[in-house]
Amino acid sequence: MEAFHGTTIVSVRRGSAVAMGGDGQVTLATSLSSRPARKVRRLYHDRILAGFAGATADAFTPVRAIRGQAGKAPGHLVRSAVELAKDWRTDRILRRLEAMLAVADREASLIITGTGDVLEPELGLISIGSGGPYAQAAARALLEHTELLPPDIVKKALTIAGDLCIYTNQSHTIESLA
Fold first, then answer.
1. Residue 62 and residue 113: Cα distance in Å, rounded?
2. What's the distance, CA 51 to chain centroid?
3. CA 165: distance to chain centroid?
């Protein structure tokens, strides 16, 4: 999978409780945007969390698409993700998008890519973007060795990633489903 520069998205689950967070840094070539971005959103009646990495304009398209797919298959995030991945891979315009999407509900945590992949990561731990490996390592250690709740793990993981990755800042958006 291609690593996208300029963002960090991480999602953690314990049972049916799940949290997803992202940093707010926007990098344009060699400069930073002056305003934090909100890269994690609640979708479909607040039942789905979605976070995106990639070119900003490109990333909004799959977010809108998963919202539409969720409406067609209510309560079935996996089915919605598979349909989005098929459309994304085969559609003449969508397949050119440079983005990745992380989605989670109370039952599943998934990564959706433009190459048609729908991945369900081990331990329900998702990380995408340039700071993803740092956030994933921190979140995994906290998940396995503490009793912290998912939103607390996400916050700490994003903070650690922001300390290590130059494309990640300390402006966080964190959403959770309990």
1. 9
2. 3
3. 17
Least confident range from 53-67, 97-111, 135-149: namely 53-67
Half-sphere exposure of residue 95: CA atoms within 13 angstroms, side-chain side: 8
Residue 156 corresponds to which tokens in the numbers above?
Answer: 């700490």
Q: How much is the pTM?
A: 0.89
Q: Indicate if 146 belongs to the active site.
A: no
Q: What is the DSSP letter of 107?
A: S
At 96, the pLDDT band (50, 70, 90 cuts) reads: confident
Residue type at 67 in one-letter notation: R
- Check 7, 8, 113, 173 and give the catalytic one: 7
User: ∠ at Cα 132 (157, 148), nearest 5°?
Assistant: 25
